Amino acid sequence: MDSINQQQPEDNMQDLNGQEALAKIKELAESAKSCFFVSNIKTGVPASVRPMSAQKIDEEGNFWFLSANDSHKNDELAKDPFVHLLFQGSGYSDFLNLYGIATITEDKEKIKELWEPTLKVWFTEGIDDPRISVIKVEPTEGYYWDNKHGNAIAFVKRLAGAAIGKTIDDSVEGKLTV
Questions:
Q1: CATH at residue 29
Q2: 165's torsion region: left (phi>0), alpha (psi -120 to 50) or beta?
Q3: Quick check: is 36 in a domain?
Q4: 154 near 92, Cβ under 8 Å?
Q5: What is the pLDDT of residue 151?
Q6: DSSP label at residue 117
Q7: Which of 3, 46, 121, 122 has its CA 20 to 30 A from that of 55?
Q8: Distance of alpha carbon 73 from alpha carbon 92, whole angstroms
Q9: From which residue to which does the signal peptide run (predicted)?
Q10: Residue 30 belongs to what domain range?
Q11: Quick check: helix, strand or coil at residue 110?
């Protein structure tokens, strides 16, 4: 535990497992304003980072993305399926850091399930565009940072802590084991 966490008057470390971890992953990922998809994390070349939107997070905690089958990302995943997903919901909460293993398919039923009309921006031939592939990311481990009672309470606690010179915040963080 680092020195800042040791100064907390209340417990702010909470590891989550199983269904609790899945619920937290889903909550934070669905409320995130941004997601960064990182590939090439094990091959020894510089990591590739790109913004992406998960089309779905299923009940097992798997993330589903649509991607062009001729993209650099798909090529990278074919060589190195290990990925890193980073989510941020706000400036003070809702952070999620996940590692996982990606698989690529061209399952037409899954494409239909995940399809949204706005995706035609990238897949100009629509739902039947032959370039559409599906990326499934199965999380293997993760970590989260959040607050316990919402951003307003966390802000008040930070103000009070700053006024009296003590570490008082509403944060909570921990490992996620699926």
A1: 2.30.110.10
A2: left
A3: yes
A4: yes
A5: 61
A6: G
A7: 46
A8: 30
A9: none
A10: 18-148
A11: helix
| Regions in the chain scoring below 50 on pLDDT | none
Q: What is the pLDDT of residue 109?
A: 97
Does a structural domain hold residue 163? no
Give 70-108 pLDDT, tens digit per residue. Answer: 999 999 999 999 999 999 987 777 899 999 999 999 999
Instruction: Please state the domain count of the chain.
Output: 1
Instruction: Give residue 20's region: left, alpha or beta (phi > 0; psi -120 to 50).
Output: alpha
Query: Strand 16-17 relative to strand 171-177: parallel, antiparallel, unpaired?
Result: parallel
Residue 85 in domain: yes
Who contacts 23 (Cβ-Cβ below 8 Å, separation ≥6)? none
Query: Cα–Cα distance between 151 and 122 in angstroms, integer?
Result: 35
27: how many CB neighbours lie within 10 A of its CB?
A: 16
Q: What is the maximum alpha-carbon separation in the chain? A: 62
* Residue 144 placed within a domain: yes
| 12 residue type, one letter | N
The continuous run of DSSP H or E covering 135 comes out as: strand 132-147
